[in-house]
Amino acid sequence: xNFKQQLAVVEGLLIPPDTEMRMDCPFCSNKNTLTVNTTDxxxxxxxxxxxxxxxxxxxxxxxxxxxxTTFKQKDESLDTEFYLxxxxxxxxxxxxxxxxxxxxNCWEAWSWGxxxxxxxxxxxxxxxxxxxxxxxxxxxxxxxxxxxxxxxPKWYMYANKDVPFIxxxxxxxxxxxxxxxxxxxxxxxxxxSIMGTSLKQSHKKFLNSYKNLYVALDRDATTKSFEIASELxxxxxxxxxxxxxxxxxxxxxxxxxxxxxxxx
Length: 264
Description:
Shape: globular
Helix content: 10-25%
Strand content: 15-25%
């Protein structure tokens, strides 16, 4: 397909503005290999599968709405409090939510208080709350994971897109794609979810305190892991390592993750 044909397909996905997400590729039909980014008034897409040529970007117009939004975001503090909607309930209120936490190795992180997780009855999502680094009892955003294939998009950002989801208090940290993987590793390392394959400039301030930094994006984004590691090293971060994966970290238990990173 040429650029115009690809653009028509991607625009037909009806992805909301200011969204960055992973999904099954409509061009090559491979699972969870297409990234789509609709931030900054533009729309960009890229498939990580080696056999797929899907990629492109259409820059949106810089109208007054875009300018006002951009400058407003720059002025806003990263720790602006996020007030939980009334639709956020305990995960105990929904069996599918509890099953998701168990299946994706999030249960321990939630039950021990390392992660604040809710169930959104309105959107049928497991919701990972992003804590305020200065006030642990407050939140600055939330990320919801759909529990049904009929709910779209699969991942939904409720608020602040400039703060990563962080789970754990370990000296070493690992940068991962999704919140479930950040929870799964949190008994061994601090999990830092950047919700995609792009490390934002605003994320870097949250990485300064760790002794060792690992980058472990999903297997099909290994190239991006090396790019992020290189970017961090150029930015002055030391002891940055890439960990290549055979599967998403959320599918490994604590002992397997410990063996994977420390060989113990």
